[in-house]
Amino acid sequence: MNLQSMNLNALKRPTVIIPVVVVLVLAALWWFLWMSPEASKLSTVNAQQSQLESQLSTLNLTLQTDKAQAPKISEYAGYLSMFAAAVPPLPEAPQLTTELADLANATSVHLVTLSDNTTVVGTPVDTIPLTMTIQGPRQNCIAFLNGIYNPKMIARLVTITSFTPSPVSAGAAGVNVLKPSGATYSVAMSGLAYYFPEIDPSAGSVTTTTSN
Predict the structure, then answer these.
(1) Higher per-residue confidence, 153 vs 10
(2) In the chain, how many domains are there?
(3) pTM score, two decimals?
(4) Secondary structure of the chain: what % helix, strand, coil (to 5)?
(5) Residue 209: count of CB within 10 angstroms of its CB
(6) Which one, 39, 73, 87, 120, has the greatest CB density within 10 A?
């Protein structure tokens, strides 16, 4: 008997063919029902992972930028707060009056008169005309003027346009020019305080009057 014909005959037996067919069918089912879908899922997961890694890289760059700008933001916030106090959105004449009165007390001068009860519409900011009279020694009057330009003493932005001192209580001998600080002066001052109102496009600009 030929050995090859024996092997072929053995393979043709049902007991051999059926298990082979079952294995092939199971392999096909495994491929189509599990392997192929899982491979598709794995591809999707890999794509999502790549997208998330890209987003993470972008977020890390943004975080680094924010960390670098954080000190500047804190510094700018201080400036914005100072500017908001210097040029408020409303006239706030009562607060301005209080600041000027406190400055007069701090520099030991007498605030004789003060007018800051009108506003004038301007471009780009509105203004409050100021007129005031103070009395005191020369150095104290100068200290009051300097204090107006010191943000720690007067938060509002104020510009003085005229400063006219006149000696008073000089006595019969007049003022000693060698010792001018010994005399009491009356100083007439005028200037402007500023505010920046929010613009309403539907409303026209008008001049308003405030009260102290």
Answers:
(1) 153
(2) 2
(3) 0.57
(4) 50, 20, 25
(5) 9
(6) 87
